[in-house]
Amino acid sequence: MSTILQVDAAEYDRMVECGAFDHLHRKIELIRGEIRQMNPAGPLHDDLISYLIRWSVLTTDGKAILVNVQTGLDLSNLESRPQPDLLWVPAARYRDRHPTAADVKLAIEVSDSSLQADLIEKAALYAEARIVEYWIVDAKGKCVHVFRHPQAGEYRERNVAKIGEQLSPLEACQVPLDLKDLFV
């Protein structure tokens, strides 16, 4: 009989600190107490992330917003350490801690093979953590799923933006995201 190893966020942090995962050469994250291996990124996934990084940096005030790329997010109360593809957080140094849900202005996941997990599990996790805005860039569907205004563990607003539309986050930005340019 096999079981999944459950660990809490503090145990996970200690394991990371002492290098327990260094030999794996894989990306992992902690989701609700389970250590999960993430799929390796393909060229389309990487290209979309590169585009979103450039757009994010060029469109935000660098004195106010820091764009983090595939870094840890501290959701200790939910026994989770996800690593969203992009996070918009207040411009600060995060040497002694990961950003928390209260810091996040926008979380973005690029989904090539993980769409269902991002739509269901990550959306529920981020809503429960009260992350104000969460986007899923659907590489295959060429659209962006937009989740806003968490309340009682769910997002009150859910929309899908498609090619031909422009998308602006709740956080102030200078130029909306042009989905045609993103996907074509």
How would you characterize the overall build of this protein?
By secondary structure, the chain is an alpha+beta fold. The chain has a single domain, classed as tt1808, chain A (Alpha-Beta Complex), CATH 3.90.1570. The protein has 4 helices and 10 strands; from the N terminus they run αββαβββαβββββα. Helix 3 (115-129) links the parallel strand 5 (106-111) and strand 6 (133-138). The protein starts with 8 loop residues before the first helix and ends with a helix.
Give the helices and strands, then pairings:
Layout: H1 9-17, E1 28-31, E2 34-37, H2 43-59, E3 65-69, E4 86-90, E5 106-111, H3 115-129, E6 133-138, E7 143-151, E8 154-162, E9 166-167, E10 177-178, H4 179-183
- Total of domains: 1
The count of β-strands is: 10
**CATH topology label:** tt1808, chain A
Terminal CA distance: 48 Å
Estimate the mean pLDDT confidence.
91
What structural class do helix, strand and pairing data support?
alpha+beta
How do the helices and strands follow one another from N- to C-terminus? Answer: HEEHEEEHEEEEEH
Low-confidence stretches: none
Question: Would you state the CATH class?
Answer: Alpha Beta
Note the beta-strand portion.
25-35%
Give the proportion of residues in helices.
25-40%
Oligomer: single chain
User: What profile does the largest beta sheet have?
Assistant: 6 strands, mixed
So, the CATH homologous superfamily? Answer: tt1808, chain A
The side-by-side strand order for the widest beta sheet comes to: 3-4-5-6-7-8
